[in-house]
Amino acid sequence: MNNAIIAMSGGVDSSVAAFLMKDKGYDLRGVTLSLYNESERDIRDAKSICDNLGFSHTTLNMKEEFTREVIEEFIKAYENSRTPNPCVVCNKRIKFGKLLDYTLGEGYNFLATGHYAQVEKIGDRYILKKGKDTRKDQSYMLYLLTQEILSKTLFPLGSLTKEKIREISRSIGLSVAEKK
Questions:
Q1: Which site from 1, 56, 112, 130 is most exposed, i.e. has the minimal number of CB atoms within 10 Å?
Q2: Each residue's pLDDT tens digit, 100-141
Q3: Which helix (H) or strand (E) holds 119?
Q4: Which of 132, 149, 148, 131 is nearest to 140 (CA)?
């Protein structure tokens, strides 16, 4: 059975990613991570999109983990004259660490996100590749993802451009079509 947790930010990218996954027949659950200071509007938008597409939504409070593993590590690195990259750390430890653990623990096979990147299986290896839209490519923020993580990750937007994402969103009447 094809099933996945879809990370929902409440924006157009994750919303279209969810639509594309649902359209391919995946059984989905939307999850919004509460990491720092999310707006209530974004959480409402994410839940509304999930409701409209016909699957459940959950918000996971990971503020403590985010503070400890991303913010405090950022501060320590900065204090030690290193150049921290909190997005890379968050992706590995929180989004594709703890959220993937949650995904698998809930009995889902995959974690899907609205990142502009692609994963290709060549032989027995998973290769992280740039997204088609080079202006939106996010593969450089995902370089720490392991083979195990890549094998369980889906990037439904990787072969599309931002313009195409907005076009799809408008065509299916998503309320977040023009959201920045």
A1: 1
A2: 999 999 999 999 999 999 999 999 999 999 999 999 999 999
A3: strand 117-122
A4: 131
